[in-house]
Amino acid sequence: FDDRAWRLLDLPHDWAVEQSFSEKGSPSHGFKASGKGFPERSIGWYRKKITVPQSDLGKIISLQFDGVYRNCKVWFNGHFLGTWESGYMGFQYDVSAYVNYGIENTIAVRVDASMEEGWYYEGAGIYRHVHLLKTDPLHVAQNGTSITSDIKNDFADITAQATIENKGHYTGNIEIMQTAYDAAGKVVASATEKGNAPGFYKSALFTSAFRISNPKLWHVDTPNLYRMVTQVRQEGRIVDSYETTFGIRSIRFDAEEGFLLNGKPLKLKGTNNHQDHAGVGTALPDGLQYFRIQKLKEMGSNAYRCSHHPPTPELLEACDRLGMLVIDETRLMGINDYHLETVRQMIERDRNHPSVFCWSVGNEEWKIEGNITGERITHIMQDFPKSIDPTRPVTVGISSGFRSGISSMVEVMGYNYMGNGDIDAHRKQFPQQPGMGTEEGSTFATRGIYFDDEAKHYKSAYDRKPRPSFYSIEEGWKFYAERPYLAGMFIWTGFDYRGEPTPYGWPSVTSYFGMMDVCGFPKDNVYYLKSWWGDKPVLHILPHWNWQGMEGKEIDVWVHSNCDEVELFLNKKSLGKKKMEKLGHLEWKVKYQPGTLEAVGYKDGRKQLSEVRKTTGVPANIRLTQNKIPHANDVAVFTVEVTDKNSLHVPTANNEVSFSVKGGKILGVGNGDPTSLEKDRFVEDISLIKITGLQEQALATAELLQQLPSYPENNWKPAFEIRDYKNPKPAYVYRGSFEIKDFPENAVVTFFYQKIGPDAVVFINGKKATPTKEDAQKYVLSADLLKNGNNTLHIIATPLRKVNDWDAANTDPGMIQVLTPAGQWRRKLFNGYAQVIVQPDGSGNDMQLTATTVGLKSATSVIPPK
Ligand code: GAL
């Protein structure tokens, strides 16, 4: 298969995010021109060539896909490996038998994103990592370890289980050695089990028990981790080594005390999140997971619900390392293989993450949640996980019918919204059942907006009740905070996401629910949560103080703070001191005058903090700031803003800024504007054009001419139709045409010729074309050879011969590729901010990002290699 004209790209990749927006697109999926309704943009093929050395012969070679959206078929050297539907769980294929050792191998993947699994943006393509795994035939099965701990006074009893799989014929004894290392790399415990190798293509479970004294427990505040190395020894030789990160901690739900981590009640301050981010869609570089989890931690959050599907493994790694509890959720409720096997895979993959404290087996299945069908399904779905992981409870997010159906029997009740039922009444009826608010909020806010603007689809960022049956974040948190029996609440959502633009439709392409926008820029509610979720003093004033034209008009000024009292000053004049109610906020009505609005916070009668909002001048400079991201070296996230001549951030700026990078590549741009239809990614565009109407004439000599003679018009006949391959003519001339519509000015046009004869010369519109040096069958066609519209191609070639009648001689002359280079990366600021996500090229040189816009001073940021 000739894939020379295909686009070169890196994984992870989401092609949906690269498409333009269309009103005909799916509202729930963010109106991208891909997926439902866009068949021509919904199926993607990927090809990759890899070399497997001869020395790997005898090993088990597997391809592991962490996640492909969705309905994916894979071939290896033409062998069909299987179909995998789920866009959220990974899959693995053993390809050992199909490998061409020592030479090139071809992987082909077909991805079909025509159908939706959820009601939110889901991306399209190989959007998570793919790994090539090589093991001995006798090895630890993939996701084959399970490490649990039982914490006693000053030690922990550890049980380490390993499933050993044998894909070879060895039948003797084996040893399984488990060695635990602490974070500093010191061995803290080890154990060895002996036994027989499992039979051919069978597996066996080996269980080791040992003790770790004075264990450093995993906690959201101190995310201590350990590492278990499982080694398989066959006749004294280590044949496999497998690493598992784990943590030692205890979890428990209690109907009175809520959730307990390491024996102490811990209120869950959670958010729900989908998996996409500005610029990159669902194809997040690993570092972006850390960026996002860090942002949630900075808000005071300690828990994350993967709504409504299993996450990428790197998200859980970030949660383990940064200290964030996780509800891990499966996509579909049901009791058949597809449902239960997905649950099994999710649990086997994720069970060693200390961050994961609860499995969720469903969310808002409206038709069944309140009835007996839902009950029956949940009975199975919550008992089934216990056979794989007895250490974690199961929940379901329930939105209607509290007190009946699933809610009457689920292990941990998941309340989706206090407006959907009487939580206290439910509690009274089922006093033994622990519960938590799996969803609360669904409030609307646009970052940096302080007046609703229905025409522009902007919602003001004050924390107000969004709809009659929904509550503000403050109302929600007060309810949960005041009830110790409720383990906590998960806000819908931490970050905005593409799709679900409730309460609007086109051209709103992202949600309005997030505490932060799609880039992770905070909306003002973040400061309410920092005040009451976090443990640091907070003082935050909203709105900004740039209200030119509104002089003398009353403006709502709110303060989020955890100080005892706050005094507000306008241009140094006190507007009064107010007492802060616990879990509340403060409000003033202020007649606008430009200048300085200052809040002073007092603790125990003494000034603790102050915060100002100043009316700024017009934009003068661009400022680029690199965000600090723990553990990330594959990505840099830049905040772009503009400042006035006094270096004050201009909160209303919306300049369009252009970006260029050296020593890296830009992965995506965003700004948090829910109605922005700007490009997320600037990528080259490739269109492939067929050569049509191929005709031929036989030639008397095999001369490959330098100039195109004129051939008698009535001698042309359809090419290859009647051809005596055993006794061909000395040469043939072929004529075909291809059409380039609206010739893009900077396009590069290439003819990828496929041999229709051993020797050939190519003419475009009568002029001879020259092949490239690196590939004699590739012709980069200069502009003077081409024209807009119809182009004529002539090929004079000696004939291909067939040895056997059944041989297939190529009759396809190849195709024309029109490549339009990626445009200049750019993005408008939205209310003062934009974001650029950049990936260093790994060369070990500096990376340099430059931001420019007309009329302002540009900015450059240089990042030394890590
Ligand atoms: C919930 C649902 C979420 C999201 C949210 C928006 O009912 O579980 O996925 O759709 O509503 O308010």
Describe the structure.
The chain has 866 residues and is mainly β. Helices cover 9% and strands 39% of the residues. The chain has 7 helices and 50 strands. Strands 18-19-20-21-22-23-24-25 form an 8-stranded parallel barrel, surrounded by 4 helices. Strand 42 and strand 43 form a beta hairpin. Helix 1 packs across helix 2. The radius of gyration is 31 Å and the shape is globular. The two termini are 40 Å apart. The model has no long low-confidence stretch (mean pLDDT 97). Beta-D-galactopyranose binds at residues 307, 363-364, 399, 416, 439, 442, 492, 500.
Rounded mean pLDDT is 97
Helical content stands at: under 10%
Report the structural category.
mainly beta
User: How would you describe the oligomerization state of the chains in this entry?
Assistant: single chain
| Total count of helical runs of at least 4 residues | 7
Widest β-sheet, arrangement of strands: 18-19-20-21-22-23-24-25
* SS strand fraction: 35-45%
Query: How many beta-strand runs?
Result: 50
- Taking the alpha carbons of the first and last residues, their distance comes to 40 Å
Topology at a glance:
Elements: E1 43-51, E2 60-65, E3 72-76, E4 79-84, E5 91-94, E6 104-112, E7 130-135, E8 138-151, E9 155-166, E10 173-181, E11 187-196, E12 202-213, E13 226-234, E14 237-246, E15 251-254, E16 258-261, E17 264-265, E18 268-273, H1 286-298, E19 303-306, H2 313-322, E20 325-329, H3 337-350, E21 356-363, H4 372-383, E22 394-398, E23 412-416, H5 423-429, E24 435-441, H6 473-481, E25 486-492, H7 525-533, E26 539-542, E27 554-561, E28 565-570, E29 573-579, E30 586-591, E31 596-603, E32 606-614, E33 621-626, E34 636-643, E35 656-662, E36 664-670, E37 685-690, E38 692-699, E39 717-718, E40 731-740, E41 748-753, E42 760-764, E43 767-769, E44 778-781, E45 789-797, E46 814-820, E47 825-828, E48 833-840, E49 847-852, E50 859-863
Parallel strand pairs: 18-19, 18-25, 19-20, 20-21, 21-22, 22-23, 23-24, 24-25
Antiparallel strand pairs: 1-6, 2-5, 2-7, 3-4, 3-6, 8-9, 9-12, 10-11, 10-13, 13-14, 15-16, 16-17, 26-27, 27-30, 28-29, 28-31, 31-32, 33-34, 34-48, 35-47, 35-49, 36-48, 37-46, 38-39, 38-40, 40-45, 41-44, 41-46, 42-43, 42-45, 49-50
The protein binds beta-D-galactopyranose.
